[in-house]
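MODEL INPUT / OUTPUT PAIR
PAIR INDEX: 1
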Amino acid sequence: MYSIIFKNEYKLNNNECPFFKDLNLNVIIDAITRQVKEEDLKPIFYTLLNSDDDINYRLDVFKDLRNEDLRVALASFANKMSHIIKEHRKMTSIEKANYADKAILLDLIDDYIDIVNKLNNDLKNLAYDSLAVKELHKYISDLIDGNFFKNMKADLKNIYENVGKIDFNLFLNEGFIYVLKPSFTETDFSLEINDLLKSLIDEEEPINIKKQNKSLSIGIKKSMLKIISDMYPDTFKIIDSFFNNYFDFIDEPLMNFPREFFFYTTYLNFMDRIKNLGLNFCIPMVSTTNKEYEVNDCYDIALAYSFLYTDRQMVLNSFYLRDEERTIVISGPNQGGKTTFARMFGQLNYLATIGVPVPGTKAKLFAPDMIYTHFEVEENVIKASGKLNLELERLYEITTNMTSRSVIILNEIFSSTSIADGIVLGKKFLDALLKVDAICVFVTFLDELSKYNKTIVSMVSTVIPSSPELRTLKIIREESNGLAYAMAIAKKYSLDYLDIKRRISHED
């Protein structure tokens, strides 16, 4: 069955992924999906793709949608299709349809035929390269050439021709409406009535009597249609047959199309809002097998969203992993952007795995089968001993379930234990990562872990050299130098060894 978002069949995940809250992805998905209240888009965003083909299937559509004419054509079709589907769903709840209901179905089918034909003509004249849009054009073309569509179109035309031959007169008398077949001896008084009304009221144009039926109540219209159906039974039998034969006129893939296409447009609209901050998005190169990364000018997308109505500026970061490199150990002073970088890394992996553009000017990314996270538990919530137990339980769960395709993000764990114990526990975890060849970002104050094995890359949060108490929020690839930061700050505030010794000597 055709889908514009899935090359292969997928079962949608109806629940948030476990890592969403740690990475602030729940904030992002809420912001994106609230734009389309009528459609539940969240399950699409919750469902991770598991092959290069499936990911590129979507990314290629995003590339095509840079063509504004194509984007408008598909959006117009999706919006009109959505309206037809909603109106049709209302009809399914009607226990016994009357002729007024059946007239609505005729109009819906007429609109359906028009928009399908228009989309087919648009796709003939527009440029696109993605397999998804090519398959859409083929699907629409085959639908139009199919017997069901052809017969429905011909039968609808036949109904309109027959309805066009229906003729009747309405008479109003003492509060009653009379519906009668016209006779050759009767006279049409509509022109005389128009002239009379024109002389009674100040109107530049005469009232069109035919338009006045719009003011009739639904009940009156239904009653009139019942009478007319008795006058012209053969015509209305054709309508009955058409209603029964074509009630389920919408092809199933087109029932899903609006919701699936809105997945693209809502994300693109969200991107446009973030771009207003002067930030960039790019189409990433994504692989489920190649574990090399190269990302330029990236940022935490949830943080950027929170800056939309402020004057604050985002700090951009770049990083890469090559050859055997698998783990980034991030150290440096507190409040230096380490946690934000870790969240950014997780967001990138998630966005790559659902096949959408990512923050940055360039991105080469690995698409994991799952992201595992553990962020520091607030110390005022739990005692240190209990905190360590929770961390060890979480690490056991991660090491038990992770695979060679997993990404793990740990933020400031082991802060409740001694440095020596933290290093021992950290090394055991790094050994487990090495064994399965998983990707990891490890934010820690334990500098020694950054030098543990050849798969580890050290990155540090930087400060302004002349004012080490000020953070740049830049995370750079560099050997850990926590001691240097501490010494620089101590010297700035005259708290280094020599200053303290001098003060003591002076006091004596």
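PAIR INDEX: 2
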Amino acid sequence: MKIVDSELEIKNIINVYKGNIPPSNVVCKSRYSDCFVFVLTGEAEYFFGGKQKTAKAGDIIYLANHSKYEIKITDDNYTFYFVDFFFENESKAVFENEIYSSKSFSVLENRFKELYDLWRLGNFAEKIYCKSVIYQIYYQVVRSSLNAYVTKANRQKIEKIIEYISENIQNSELSVATLGEMCGSSEVHFRRLFNQIYHISPIKFISNLRIKKAKELLTTTPIKISEISKICGFENQYYFAKKFKADTHLTPTEYRATYYMK
């Protein structure tokens, strides 16, 4: 399991360090914690999961608790920040080591530097704040995964699906499985591809589009709420009212009374 496929809590921080490793081979038979490494300069070869991957400046390496790996360093200028910590892992899930590339070098460098500087102060308050900084780093890791390269062909497929959804929003039976079939892929792959491009799940995208359409109709037309429910593809008026209030904190009737454009 990849950490980018889960919403994980950070339990505690063990250490934050800045340093370098001279040309050498490093073998780890079992890590003692989870770890994020941010490469500042140089590069190194990492071997895990039977694969060889290159980590270069700007990359974040996630090394999982209890994992095995090997590092081959030939660059005499391999410098980095790293933070040892623990994810909450009550399910005992086995996480995968991975290298994540990001275009936000300066942002990540600043986050790791902030983390390093705060940790060195050693104060209780600063150490609490350090957790929030690791969450920001975790966020960047997830975003870099979602922004992974998507081929032009796949992007065009999803754009056609978006058009189809917009034109058929009134269809209450729109399903991710059906959309996946239209895209020529499995439901799981379709969800992942949709997320990569739009940074939102297809279910949430459809829901947001329906609520947006409902807001428009509620504020610009006198159409009955029961009819708006059908036009926007909700199964029934009760479900529409429940979903609308969950998203806006107002019932459709309250929303119309507040925002209707006479």
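PAIR 2 NOTE: Residues 124-146 form the longest helix (23 residues).
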